[in-house]
Specification:
single chain; about 280 residues; alpha+beta; Quinone Oxidoreductase, Chain A, domain 1; six-stranded antiparallel β-sheet; 7 helices
Length: about 280
């Protein structure tokens, strides 16, 4: 069975986002259907739209979704209908990297998030006018009213965090998780205000290197609930608003991440993610 949903589709490289009516599969084994309440827009979404990302078009992107579980497929035990979830990147859950708690280094990361434009096995999830279009971007394609994810990348939030406004939860799945996870899991927790000098000559002569960090080397089922809890407690705040349910007042997300995501105490530094968020 399929359901008709609204989605922002991209016809081809460089084309504009277009609001379209498409059909989305019902969840199969291990999948979760989520009613999207808010979604962030990351640079990766714009890069995919421009054709600069290894994602096939036409298709639907979006990978910072938040919402409520509408239905689950067979074998799903981590969430149930009605649960509040943050959508994040997907991973296989079986390889040595996933088993060791570093799903950002999943051996099948690319197939689960980018190049297939479909389920990892190749079957499509999205259809328009009877023909398949590409989806499963970061295992979700959440620029839509509903998104189909796996139980590994639909992370439940509970308690006070479940009552947060969806636009506060959405960017945690990628933009905020990447920055906070990089500090917590890779760099460590430096004293506030510490800077690292990096001269162009250091790069040219190979004495220093800039290393990319995928999704902050985070383990989402462990890290995202903790990060959402910090937001709910007020230890990690969005600039310009203290209300849980107030809409965003600025497209820039400024967070006290450097310290508060890594310790129990509140932070005082500002760290902006690349995300802007809209409510569905």
């Amino acid at each position: 069975m399929r359901r008709t949903i609204a989605a922002l589709t991209v016809a081809g490289a460089g084309a504009a986002f277009e609001l379209s009516e498409v059909e989305l599969d019902d969840p199969v084994d291990g999948e979760v259907l989520v009613r999207v309440e808010a979604v962030g827009m990351c640079h990766a979404d714009l890069a995919a739209r421009a054709g600069d990302f290894p994602f096939p078009l036409p298709g639907v992107v979006g990978h910072e979704g938040a919402g409520r579980v509408e239905a689950v497929g067979a074998g799903v035990t981590s969430v149930r209908p009605g649960d509040r979830v943050i959508l994040t990147f997907d991973s296989c859950g079986r390889c040595d990297r996933c088993v060791s708690g570093t799903p950002t280094q999943c051996r099948d990361f690319v197939a689960h998030n980018f190049t297939n434009g479909a389920r990892p096995g190749g079957s499509p999830t999205l259809w328009r006018a009877g023909a398949p279009i590409h989806g499963s971007f970061f295992g979700q394609s959440s620029f839509a009213t509903f998104a189909l994810a796996g139980q590994r990348n639909a992370v439940p939030v509970t308690g006070a965090a479940a009552e947060l406004a969806p636009e506060l939860l959405a960017p945690l799945g990628c933009g905020v998780q990447t920055g906070a996870g990089a500090v917590r899991g890779v760099v460590g927790v430096p004293p506030f205000g510490v800077t690292a000098a990096l001269d162009v000559a250091d790069l040219v002569n190979d004495s220093k290197h800039i290393v990319g960090i995928v999704e902050g080397a985070s383990n989402p089922p462990v890290f995202l609930p903790r990060l959402a809890g910090l937001v709910a407690s007020g230890a990690c705040r969005r600039q310009g608003s203290s209300s849980r349910r107030s809409p965003p007042t600025t497209p820039r997300w400024c967070w006290s991440i450097i310290r508060s995501a890594c310790t129990a105490g509140s932070g005082t530094s500002g760290c902006s993610s690349s995300s802007t968020t809209s409510r569905g």
